[in-house]
UniProtKB/TrEMBL annotation:
<dbReference type="InterPro" id="IPR028939">
    <property type="entry name" value="P5C_Rdtase_cat_N"/>
</dbReference>
<keyword id="KW-0028">Amino-acid biosynthesis</keyword>
<protein>
    <recommendedName>
        <fullName>Pyrroline-5-carboxylate reductase</fullName>
        <ecNumber>1.5.1.2</ecNumber>
    </recommendedName>
</protein>
<keyword id="KW-0521">NADP</keyword>
<dbReference type="Pfam" id="PF14748">
    <property type="entry name" value="P5CR_dimer"/>
</dbReference>
<dbReference type="InterPro" id="IPR036291">
    <property type="entry name" value="NAD(P)-bd_dom_sf"/>
</dbReference>
<comment type="similarity">
    <text>Belongs to the pyrroline-5-carboxylate reductase family.</text>
</comment>
<feature type="domain" description="Pyrroline-5-carboxylate reductase dimerisation">
    <location>
        <begin position="164"/>
        <end position="269"/>
    </location>
</feature>
<keyword id="KW-0963">Cytoplasm</keyword>
<dbReference type="InterPro" id="IPR000304">
    <property type="entry name" value="Pyrroline-COOH_reductase"/>
</dbReference>
<dbReference type="Pfam" id="PF03807">
    <property type="entry name" value="F420_oxidored"/>
</dbReference>
<comment type="pathway">
    <text>Amino-acid biosynthesis; L-proline biosynthesis; L-proline from L-glutamate 5-semialdehyde: step 1/1.</text>
</comment>
<keyword id="KW-0641">Proline biosynthesis</keyword>
<comment type="function">
    <text>Catalyzes the reduction of 1-pyrroline-5-carboxylate (PCA) to L-proline.</text>
</comment>
<dbReference type="GO" id="GO:0004735">
    <property type="term" value="F:pyrroline-5-carboxylate reductase activity"/>
</dbReference>
<dbReference type="InterPro" id="IPR029036">
    <property type="entry name" value="P5CR_dimer"/>
</dbReference>
<dbReference type="InterPro" id="IPR008927">
    <property type="entry name" value="6-PGluconate_DH-like_C_sf"/>
</dbReference>
Length: 272
């Protein structure tokens, strides 16, 4: 991977997290070119410190081995139009924009039958604890998939799928999923207040409980089901709460509806 020439377009939250991860892992800064006309100042300072080549446009930039575009979906089309000189029949274009299909990503580069990987990370990538799901078009080689996996591992776990249609469900589970967890912490804190706890204490308890349980699950070899069962004593307090949450119209059905709604919206957005 260290020999690859990489061009990163956009160093906002996601692109910046990836760049920081690469540099922290010891990737050669001279192998990286960044294109961003207005990078956040902390990112500009970091790039200057490490000697990363920062450009305001693709003008004068030679085609890289991997072109990774990390811009918002709303401006993806305009950005891709300015990158036509960087895409050829041999390199690979990677997008981390939600709701932008492989066909949409390929449209500006149809003259060269581009190799494209569509990737869906999530916001815990900002602390290198995310998960990114990838799907490639037919031209991408196994070596390119491996190289992109290595790059994306800087922000967390990487998984691959073969059917792009599954990306809508991926969006509903992991792409939007962090918001569900944050809302769980909100709801748990409010429930504590309703039960009589002071607001600040209840918020502290809820946030520490959610983050701690997540850390335990990440570090344990046990399944979420087994971890839940381990903390549930027969006829105890946790069982009483779970009988409410796991009722026929409870949390599982509500989550199923939530994920379905997110997946449906993702499909609608990808169709424009």
């Amino acid at each position: 991977m260290s020999a690859l020439k990489l061009c990163l377009v956009g160093v906002g939250n996601m692109g910046g997290a990836m760049l920081a991860g690469w540099l922290e892992a010891g990737r050669d800064p001279k192998s990286i070119t960044v294109i961003d006309p207005q990078p956040p100042q902390p990112m500009a300072d970091m790039m200057q410190k490490f000697g990363v080549d920062l450009r305001v446009s693709a003008e004068g930039v030679s085609a890289p081995d991997v072109l990774l575009v990390a811009v918002k979906p709303q401006i993806m089309g305009a950005v891709l139009e300015g990158l036509t000189s960087l895409v050829n029949a041999e390199n690979v274009l990677v997008s981390v924009a939600a709701g932008t299909t492989i066909a949409q990503l390929a449209a500006p580069f149809s003259r060269v039958s581009p190799r494209i990987i569509r990737a869906m990370p999530n916001t815990p990538a900002q602390v290198q604890q995310g998960i990114t799901v990838c799907v490639a078009n037919g031209g991408v080689s196994n070596a390119q998939c491996d190289a992109v996996s290595d790059l994306l591992a800087a922000i967390g776990q990487v998984a691959w799928i073969n059917d792009e249609k599954l990306m809508d469900a991926v969006t509903g589970v992991s792409g939007s999923g962090p918001a569900y967890v944050f809302h769980l912490a909100e709801a748990l804190a409010q429930a504590g207040v309703s039960a009589g706890l002071p607001v600040e204490l209840s918020a502290q308890l809820a946030q520490a409980t959610v983050s701690g349980a997540g850390a335990l699950m990440a570090q344990s070899d046990l399944s979420p089901t087994q971890l839940r069962e381990n903390v549930t004593s027969p006829n105890g307090t946790t069982q009483a709460a779970l009988e409410v949450l796991m009722a026929a119209d409870g949390f599982p059905k509500l989550m199923e509806r939530a994920v379905a709604a997110a997946a449906q919206r993702s499909e609608e957005l990808s169709k424009g």
